[in-house]
Amino acid sequence: MQPIHITYLNRLDIEAAALSDMEMLDAIEASLGMQGRGETVIEPRVHLEPRAGAEGHFNVLRGWIGGEIDAAGVKVVGDFVDNYKQGLPSEFGILNLFDPRTGTPRAVLDASGITDMRTGAVTAVGAKYLARKNSKTLAHIGARGTAYWNVRLLDKLFDFDTIRVHSRRPESRDAFAERLSRDLGKTVVATPDWRSCVEGADIVVEASRLSAPEPMLKTEWIKPGALVVPYGTMSAVELSLTDIMDKMVVDDWGQCKAGKFGSLRAHVEAGKLSEKTLHAEIGQIVAGLKPGRESDGETILFWHRGLSLSDIALGHAFLVKAASMGIGQQLRYA
Question: What Gene3D superfamilies has UniProt attached to this entry (predicted)?
Answer without folding.
Answer: NAD(P)-binding Rossmann-like Domain, ornithine cyclodeaminase, domain 1
